[in-house]
Amino acid sequence: MLRGNFTGYRLHRSISILLGFMMMLTPVFFDQNAIFYLTPFGSLFLFIYVFKATGKFSISLLIFLAATLLSEYLFLTDYEKNITLTCLASIVGYAALLFLMKPVLKKRVTAFSKHNLVELIVGFITLSFVLLYIVYLVMPFIPETSLFLLTVVVFGITMSVCFIIPNYNLHPDNIGLIMIGGSYIAGTVFGFIYYFLYNEIPMLMMATFMMVFMKVTLATYITRFKRIEKDSTYQEYI
């Protein structure tokens, strides 16, 4: 059974992870744009993995992967020139990610008093500080500030949801959302540092690693939606 599952759909996730490591090493030996010869295949194998594991063709996941791929490409090639398309693609990707989390978002809280309000507040303050500090550093380089700030707001809302859900829905599998949000923030921060502040290969490698980790974790989390909802002790967590 385990071997059947691996060859059936987990193999696709493993191939995507392997491609992710290849993407990390690509800037060391080739031009940074060479990453984008591998990125579409990594996203494709993740999509196939989710499709085979769930038996469902997820339009939201497809839109998220495509929008994220487009925004990454436009960002690294010429962000100042492509800022409008980059921001629009990013917003579409964030919206698709929120829609992907709909099965968990629709669950109502039954005992909010038992949940981690202190951790929630600290996490929100930390997230806000990181985003505002990065915005402060790169704002002088941004030609289209209004659209950029709108993108930052939507990104902040999306990441807040990733951190809030595990605090009111304490199912163990929801820890994946914290990993998704944390790696997404880290990948974005490293990307901006690389492009605007410190144009060195290690920054690009870290940004690539975090984004690959985020996508793999998201794909894995999506395949566990049914297990989360069918858990016999589900109500104990909300």
UniProtKB/TrEMBL annotation:
The chain crosses the membrane at residues 12-29, 35-51, 58-76, 82-105, 117-139, 145-165, 177-197, 203-222. It comes from the Bacteria. Keywords: Membrane, Transmembrane, Transmembrane helix. This is YhhN-like protein. It comes from Dokdonia genika.
